[in-house]
Amino acid sequence: MMKSHTATLTSVSSSTASSSSADNRSSWLPCLPFGRKSEQMITGAEPLASTPSNDLLGGFLGKYRGLAFAIGSLILVIVAVLSLNLYFSAQIERNTRIQEAATTQATLVQQMSRQLFIITSRYQKVLPYQTEKQDLERTMETFSEKLNAFANHGQITVNQADGSARSVATPSAYSPDGAVLITELTGLWQGYQENVAVLFQRSENSQLELLVATEFVEENNDQLASLATRFAREIQRQSAGNLTYMRAAQIAGIAFALVMFFLTIFRTVRRLMDNDHQLELARKETQEILTTVREGLFLVDSHLIIGSQYSREMQAIFNTRHIAGRPLDDLLAELIDHQELSVIQDFLKLLFAPHIIEDLTGNLNPLERVEVAVTQEDGSITHKHLNFEFYRVMSDGQIEDILVSVRDITDQIRLEQELENTRVEGERNLDLLMSILKADTRQLRSFVGTALTTLNEINAILREPIRDRTDYSEKIQRLFTRVHRLKGDAYAIHLDVFARQAHKFEDALDDLRQVEQVEGMDFLPLTIRLDKLISQTEVLQRLSEQLTGASAEASNNSADDTAPGGDSMATRGTSAGNSLRQPLEKLVAQLSEELEKPAQLVASGLNEVELDENQARVISDVCVQLIRNSLVHGIETTPVRERKNKPVTGRVDIRLAQLQDDTLEPRLRDDGQGIDLQAVRTRLVEQGVATPETITQWTDSKLISAIFRPGFSTAGDVDMHAGRGVGMDVIREQIQSLGGRIRIQQIPGRFCEFEIRLPAATTETTQ
After folding, report:
1. SS3 label, residue 322
2. Integer angstrom CA distances of residue 471 from 168, 468, 475, 737
3. What pTM did the predictor assign?
4. How far is Cα 661 from Cα 316, in angstroms, rounded to an integer?
5. Residue 214, by phi and psi: left (phi above 0), alpha (psi -120 to 50) or beta?
6. From CA 407, how far away is CA 29, in angstroms rounded?
7. Which domains can be identified in the chain, with CATH numbers?
8. What gap in Å lies between CA 312 and CA 304, rounded to an integer?
9. Which residues make Cβ contacts (< 8 Å) with residue 63, sequence separation at least 6?
10. Strand, helix or coil at 382?
11. Residue 260, SS3?
12. What digits encode the pLDDT tens for the residues 659-691?
C-alpha cells in the first residue's frame, strides 16, 4: 500500500433518502484505505473537529506506549552510563594527578637534600650560594604547600598533559594507614622547617647554621623520603581501589544498557511481527474486497495520479492493466473526446478546492453519465456508458485524496433507452390514433395507400446502384421529391407524427447531399428511417382498419348510393370537392396558427368538376405545396400587412375550372408579397448558378422559372415547411406526370398567382 497498511471497511449511505435522481449515486460504497491513510472514514460529511496534535499524541501513546517506554528507558540508561563514564574518567584523571603529586613529594625530598649539600659545599669553598639557597626555598615551599593540601584535604595545583596548570582536590578521606603516614609526615616536616628555614632568615649564614641544617637533613632525609614514598604508594593503592569500584559500576551500567537494548529490540521485533500479521490480514481483506466488488474503485492524489491499489473491475471496465501510477486525465484521454477532456480536467482540479462544497461538485460532475469508446484486444471498438462518482478523503481537515467509483451502466442506459423508445412509440401511436379519429375516412385510406406506394418507390430508388456523381445527385433529388410530397400529404390531414418522421428522413437526405464520395454504407441511415416510416404506415393502416372499418364501409355504401357507378374516392365532383376542400382549409388554419400569420382559404369550383383518382391526387398534392409556399413565403406577417394597408388576414384563393376541351385549370392566388426576385438573384449567385455579373442580365420570367430548380429555396432556415428547395420541384414533377404545365403571374407586393393546365383524363393517365 502507498502510505499505511491498515484497512477498514464500511458503507457510505446516500446523503439523504430524498436525493435527486440526477445525483444517481450508489447507495453504498466500500470505504477502503488503499494505503493512503490508515483507518480513514470516507463520507460526504465534514470530519469531527479535533486538535491534530492531541489526536496524534494520543494515538501514538495509545498505540506505541510500550515501545515508547522501552526506548525511553534505554535512552535513560545509555545517558546514565555515559554520564557515569564521564564522571569516572574525571575521577581517574584526578587520581592520576594526585598520585603524580604524591610521588613528586618524594622527589622533592631528595632535591632539597641535594640543594642543601650544594649550598654547604659552596659555602666551604667560599663561593656564592644565594641562587642555590633561593632554589631550596622554592622547593621547600612547593613541598610544604602540597603537604598542607594533603593534610587538610585541600586543592593542589598540578600540570596537565598540554602543559597547563589546574587545581585538583585531594582525597577527602584516607585509609587508616594513609592517615598515620600523613600525620607522621607532617610532624617530621615541621622539624625539617625549623632547622632548615633559619637559613632563609639572613642573606649570609654562619657555618653553625649550615652545620645544624645539614646534620638534621642527613639524619631525617631518608625517613622523610620514606614517609613521602609510602604515602604516595598508599594514595596509589587507594586510587586503584576506587578505580576497581568505578570499573565495576561501568560494567554494570553497560550490562544493564545491553539488557535494555535487547529487550527493546525484542519488543520492537515482536510488535513489528504482530503489525505485519495484522497488515497481512488487512491486505488480504482489502484484496478480497477489491477483487470481489462489482465497480471500479481507486484513489487519485492532488496531481491526479492514480494510486497503486484499485479494484479488479477497473481492468474489465477500461480493458487495460496499465492503470496504477497513470494520470487520470491520461486514462480518460483514450476514451473520451478531446473537446470534453478540458472540461473534465477543470472539474477534477475543482475537487481539490477546499472552498468548494462537496455536494456541489456532485451536481457539476461531467462524468456522471459519459459514453466512452473502449478498444478491445482484437482491435474492435466497444461503446460503454460509465458513471463516475468522486468522494473526498479528508485528513486533519485537509483534502488528502479523491476516492473514485466507476460503474458500467451500459445495461442500465440501454434499458432506459428501450423504455424511452417504448414510451415514444406509445405516444406516437396515441398521436396517430388521435389523428385517425380526427381525419376523414376516405382521406386516411387514400393517404395510407399513397404512402405505401411512395415508400415502395423510395425503397426501389435506394436499391438502384450509383455509377457517378450525376446519378448520385439525381437519386437524392428523386428521394427528396417523394419524401417531401409524403410529408406535405401527412401534414395536410394532421398526421403530425408521420410528418415529423418524414422531416427527419429529409434531414438524413440533406446530410447525404453534402457528402463528396458516397458509398453504400452512407445510405444505411436512410434505410433505417425508411423502415420506421414503413412501420408507422403499417401501424396507421391497422389502426385505421380497426377503428374505422365499419364506419368506412357504411360511408362507402352511402357514397355508392348517392353516386352510382363510381367506387373511387374522387369519381364525382361532390365527392372530390369535399375530399379536397376540407383538408386544404385545415392546412391553411394549421399553418396560419403555427406561422402566426392570419389567413383564410377561399375555394371555388371544387364541387363542380369531376376528377379521376390521378387528377385528384395531383391537384391535391399541388395545392398542398402551393398553400405551404404561400403561407411561408407569400403572406406577410401582421405588422408588415398593416404597414402596407392590407387586411390583417391574408387570403388564399383556389379555383378549379374545366375548359371546353376538358382541360382542367386549377388556379391558386395569394395576396402576399409575391416572389422576391432580388432574393432569387442572391440565392442563384450563392449556389453558383450565375455570377454577380450575369445575374443582372436575367429577365424576370427567367428568374421566376428558377424557383423550380431542384434544391432551390430562398428560406434562410430549414424547418418543417421550407428551406429544402423541394416543394416547387414536387409541383413541377406532379404536373409533368399528367402532361400539364404551369404559369406564374405576379405583381410584387400585391399578389402571386399560379395557373396550371392539366389535359383531360385519358386511359393512359388513368392507368
Report:
1. coil
2. 124, 5, 6, 21
3. 0.43
4. 80
5. alpha
6. 11
7. 71-265 (1.20.120), 293-408 (3.30.450.20), 411-562 (1.20.120.160), 573-767 (3.30.565.10)
8. 20
9. none
10. strand
11. helix
12. 888 889 999 999 998 888 888 888 888 888 889
